[in-house]
Specification:
Length: 230
């Protein structure tokens, strides 16, 4: 069973109109892309929604396509007619957007303390309330930024303090190691001196020290024997 014929007229329901626009627009862009690929054609499509949002597709460059279109022999008259129709069709929306822009500029000027003519006491009081709320919001944001910076500075300070403490511990460890080495060297020197003293007194000494001592004693005994012989 075939599909029923759809009457071509504006869809009254807003949601249905938006859904239909989205589906038909996607289908149109798809067909334009297929036409450009299959037939090696240069295709450009421009679609404006009822809210003024632009959707476009270009097989190459939209600027090149429009330039080529404007240079076509029969395009000047058609362009003029289309521009007039477009201006007539979009004129209400353009006027509405211009009015909205003018209103926003006026609000911005009043927030800066300008163009206050024509405002009554109630309007001025409401404007003052808006400015006060804005100033409070700015101050709160400023305090948050400052607190963030202070917190970051404290973390950096704590990190530097920990690094300094680690360096102090390393330096103290090096000092203890140096003192330990000096004490060991002094103890070794005292041990050697005590060995010499033990030899003079005839006390037992380490084996490592006995290799040198007998030579010294024999030399001393030889000298005494030589003196006796003389």
């Amino acid at each position: 069973m075939g599909r029923g014929k759809i009457e071509i007229k504006m869809i009254e329901n807003t949601n249905s109109r938006q859904v239909t626009f989205s589906k038909r627009r996607q289908g149109l862009m798809k067909k334009a892309k297929e036409l450009a690929i299959l037939c090696d054609a240069e295709v450009g499509v421009l679609v404006f929604s009822n809210t003024g949002k632009l959707y476009q597709f270009a097989s190459s460059s939209m600027e090149n396509i429009l330039s080529r279109y404007n240079k076509a022999p029969e395009s000047s008259e058609l362009t003029t007619i289309e521009n007039m129709a477009a201006e007539h069709e979009w004129q209400p929306e353009v006027n509405e957007l211009r009015a909205e822009v003018a209103l926003l500029r006026q609000v911005q000027s009043r927030l800066m303390g300008k163009e206050l003519e024509g405002l009554n006491f109630k309007d001025l009081q409401q404007l003052e309330h808006q400015l006060t709320e804005g100033i409070l919001a700015v101050k709160d944001k400023k305090e948050q930024v400052l607190l963030g910076k202070i917190e970051k500075s404290l973390l950096q300070e704590e990190k530097v303090s920990l690094e300094n403490e680690a360096l102090r511990e390393q330096i103290e460890e090096l000092r203890r190691s140096s003192r330990h080495c000096q004490e060991r060297a002094l103890a070794l020197e005292n041990t050697v001196c005590d060995s010499d003293t033990c030899l003079r007194l005839g006390l037992p000494v380490d084996t490592s020290q006995k290799m040198i001592i007998p030579k010294m004693e024999s030399t001393s005994n030889d000298a005494q024997n030589t003196m006796i012989l003389e």
